[in-house]
Amino acid sequence: MTIRDTSSKSSELLLLRAKIHELETRVEQAKLEKKLASGGYKEFSDKERLRRYIDSNIVAIHRADIYGNITEANDATVKLLGYPKEDLYSGKVKWTHFTPPEFLHMDKAAIEQLRETGRTPFFRKEYIRSDGSRVPVLVQVTAVNREATDCFTIVFDLTESDKLERQLQESEKQFRALAEAIPHIVWMCDPTGKIAYANKRWFDFTGLSPNDHEGRWLSVLHPDDRKLCLQEAERAFRTNTDFNMEIRYRAANGTYVWHLVRAHIIDDPKNGEKIWFGTSTDIDDKKRASDEIKESEMRFRMLADAIPQIVFTANPNGEIDFFNDRWFEFTGLSLAQSQNNGWQLLIHPDDLPRYMNEWQKALDTGDSHEIEFRLRRAVGVKTVKNHAYRSHLARAVALRGTNGSVIKWFATWTEIEGHK
What we know:
The protein is an alpha+beta fold. It has helices spanning 9-20, 26-39, 47-55, 75-81, 85-89, 104-117, 159-181, 200-206, 223-239, 284-306, 325-331, 335-338, 352-365, and strands at 60-65, 70-73, 123-128, 134-143, 150-157, 185-189, 195-198, 243-250, 256-267, 274-282, 310-314, 320-323, 369-376, 389-400, 406-415. The chain folds into three domains: 9-161, Beta-Lactamase; 182-282, Beta-Lactamase (2-Layer Sandwich); 288-415, PAS domain (Beta-Lactamase). 37% of the residues lie in helices and 26% in strands. A hairpin with a 5-residue loop joins strand 3 and strand 4.
């Protein structure tokens, strides 16, 4: 019968992390462990080195025969079990006494393996302390002699690591509960793109199976977004910066839906490796609405540039944010010259106070306004004799939002010179 390694990798890792800062003599420990790994049931020749390792009290170590008699134990063992050395050495307390009955079969299997190979793997069990309480431990036994009657046992107290493991499991449980509750796709993956975790919303949306999804997220990424997405992900990982990108995922029904993907690089608490933690938010309606607004604005600009009038738009405060091409043709000004009220310099000085008064009144009330005024034509642009200023009719109307407030002003200046 061969004893199996019943320790979990995560428990060993947490244990080693918890102990690492205590290993003042870790060089000696590493040398001894190397000897243990290669020695099997060979005799220990370096008694002094073994003595230093036992006396270091880094971990609990005791020496015993296969019949339960303890011949040596360090202070860490005494602290772990709560028995004085006298009780251990006198035979009053044997290792068979502090092993719970349900774990005795593991000890029997360990003895068999010692006789076969001279060493057991680490395995989990429990010890009964002097006060009757139990302590979880991780044990490895190595034969000191060829007959395997004399054994050297290393014992790690798993109390703290088990506590950390439970805390980790509880944190993971809380995380998963939160991840399932929020209205976003939540996922984690390694640098190669292998998905380590995804919430139910991901599988519901994509139609992928939880049992067959690793690495398949690329299959639901829009072909036009794939190259840029991988490039941006590689850049973000290389520079250790966040990933932010709008991409399209294929839904279970075959349609592509826009998502805002945000990801942050974190250290995996289980193995310390870098992993992506990210969310994908459905922005399809917002994205399509934004595209429709842009398309509408483009159509408006095309229409505004096609008509013979000067057209401009302004924000609720009256700051002009758009002029059509006719404005630049008529005035000869650049966009920079036209902004910051530069356009006011082209209104006839006698008309400017009246125009500004009417314009301000419209801004204050939100009412449409109409006024005639004279606007100066640029020198050298379609020159008309004796008429540097041309009469215009100004009209402005307000666009209101759902709450009734003004969100945009639309205005035209129509040349009426010769029509009066």
